[in-house]
Amino acid sequence: MPSRTLRTIRLVAFALVFTVAGYTASTWLNRTLAPAPTPDPAGEPVAAATVLPTFTLHDLAGAPRSIDEFTGAPLLINFWATWCAPCLREMPMFETVWQERGGDRRLQIVGIAIDRPDDIAPWVEQTGVTYPILQGRADAMEAAGRFGPAFAGLPFTIFITGDRQILLMHSGELTRERLDEILGIVDDVTSGHLSVAAARAQLQPQ
Asked: Are the beta carbons of 108 and 98 closer than 8 angstroms?
């Protein structure tokens, strides 16, 4: 067999090996980040949460913080990780919204990192994110799982009213246009111009 043909075959085989390896790694990560909903004692899958569940995680200083501390105003919770590229693209956008709305309590934002503490703090410092960050690994995964089957991977963002009613749970990257649309509906609920049920109906994918 000519040496040029042999080199071509080897290159194609090498590329195929890396393609299969990449697909396998991606599949493993997705399964790791999106565990099946935990069955209840009767053996049924956990239903989607409609009210903010209570959980406690540690902040960047290592202090335990209950999510209840951040209620009383509309709340955006964003689950993320340092190795999640869409998560990292979203966070500067959330910081901009935090600067626009967080000061007067029109919106509370809490980021929850499913990652190692040593990886989280340097990235937060580098990017200048100032909204509260909680962290954890198995416990943060468990917190995300409490929202039910809507947790299908990272990023995972939840929009909640001041009285703990969940309006929307979104898996995947958000654009600023979509974020503004959602927050406009959150504002309408807060002002009393829209009911929770009507807001949920409007926020469902068409």
From this structure: no
CA distance 166 to 75: 9
Please tell me the pTM assigned to this model.
Answer: 0.79
Domain 56-203 has CATH 3.40.50.300: no
> Which residue type, as a one-letter code, is found at position 186?
V
List, as one string, the DSSP characters of 66-134.
Answer: EGGGG-SS-EEEEEE-TT-HHHHHHHHHHHHHHHHHGGGTS-EEEEEEES-HHHHHHHHHHHT--S-EE
pLDDT in tens, 39-76: 444 455 568 999 999 999 999 999 999 999 999 999 99
For residue 76, the number of C-alpha atoms closer than 13 Å in the C-beta half-sphere is 27
Which letter does DSSP use for residue 171 in this model? E
Domain spans in the chain, listed from the N-terminal domain onward? 1-33, 56-203
pLDDT band at 134 (very low <50, low <70, confident <90, very high): very high
